[in-house]
Amino acid sequence: MYARDVAGNVRAFTGGNGDMATYINGVANGGFESANFNSWSTGGALPVSIVPPAPQPPDVGLYSASLGARLWPKPARTPDRARGIGRLRQTVRLPERGDWPVIYLGLRYRIYTYDVMWSDYFQEYIDTFDVYLLDSAGVQLAHLLRDGNPDRNLIGPGRPVVDLGWKEVNLDISQFAGQTVQIVMANANRRDQIYNTWTIVDNVSITAPGRRVTFYPA
After folding, report:
1. How buried is residue 177: exposed, middle or buried, by Cβ count under 10 Å (0-12/13-18/19+)?
2. In this structure, is residue 14 part of a structural domain?
3. Are the C-beta atoms of 93 and 99 separated by less than 8 Å?
4. How many CA atoms lie within 13 A of 162 on its CB side?
5. Radius of gyration (C-alpha) of the chain in whole angstroms
6. Which H or E element spans position 135?
7. Of 83, 99, 126, 143, which residue is the least packed, with the fewest Cβ within 10 Å?
8. Is the dihedral of CA 148, 150, 156, 161 positive or negative?
9. Angle value at C-alpha 22, between 16 and 28, nearest 5 degrees
10. Is residue 18 part of a domain?
């Protein structure tokens, strides 16, 4: 490896027995530090906005994306805009599998909710945060993540918002290497407009461990 400074000075070769390569993150504006949704498309009935991540972990920067919104301080009947999906989407080209044996989609998220993710009564999912991978035509390749509040004892009239805290995930998407895919993240409020849920998202990235090709003497 060589290093060159802005003046054009080149540092001596560092040696080593192979070629180390590093994959550069293919997600554009994954930290939302542009304070806008450049490189992303938004959609759904719920609002999607740029917000300061509070309380803020030390390494997520100044801005995050909010899927859904805290429109009301407590559960109450609200307009239908509290029901539906708030969605973010970006199209990326994944690296080839031969070059990178493992490929991850990473992100941080924080769910705030007055509801449950699953209803035993209705036998269906209610409010969730989901991550999908679609192909370039919009056909679902994988449902990578579903999360939400599993405890119905935490919700109900007069109960405070359930803060599930910051979570960090690295989702293995190696099987889709070399493909052009759409990353989709969605906050869903499905059943009613009474109990609100919203999700803060940050640090969306595609990463691959560094690879080393070793050259042996003839």
Report:
1. middle
2. no
3. no
4. 22
5. 21
6. strand 127-135
7. 143
8. negative
9. 160
10. no
Residue 55: cis peptide before it, omega within 30 degrees of 0: yes
CATH of the domain at 147: 2.60.120.260
Percent pLDDT > 70 in the chain is 79
CB 179 within 8 A of CB 105: no
Within 13 Å, how many C-alpha atoms sit on residue 127's CB side? 27
Task: Please list the residues that pair with 197 across neighbouring strands.
Answer: 113
Q: Tell me the pairing of strands 127-135 and 211-214.
A: unpaired
Instruction: Report pLDDT for 97.
Output: 80
pLDDT by residue (tens digit) across 154-164?
A: 998 888 999 99
Q: What is the pLDDT of residue 19?
A: 54
Specify whether the CB–CB gap between 137 and 200 falls below 8 A: no
- At a CB cut-off of 8 Å and minimum separation 6, what does 143 contact? 130, 131, 132
Domain that holds residue 188: 24-211
Task: Give the pairing type, strands 140-147 and 197-207.
Answer: unpaired
Q: What is the pLDDT of residues 134-177, one digit of tens each?
A: 999 999 999 999 999 999 999 988 889 999 999 999 999 999 99
Total number of domains constituting the chain? 1
Q: What single-letter DSSP state applies at residue 10?
A: B
pLDDT at 48 over 50: yes
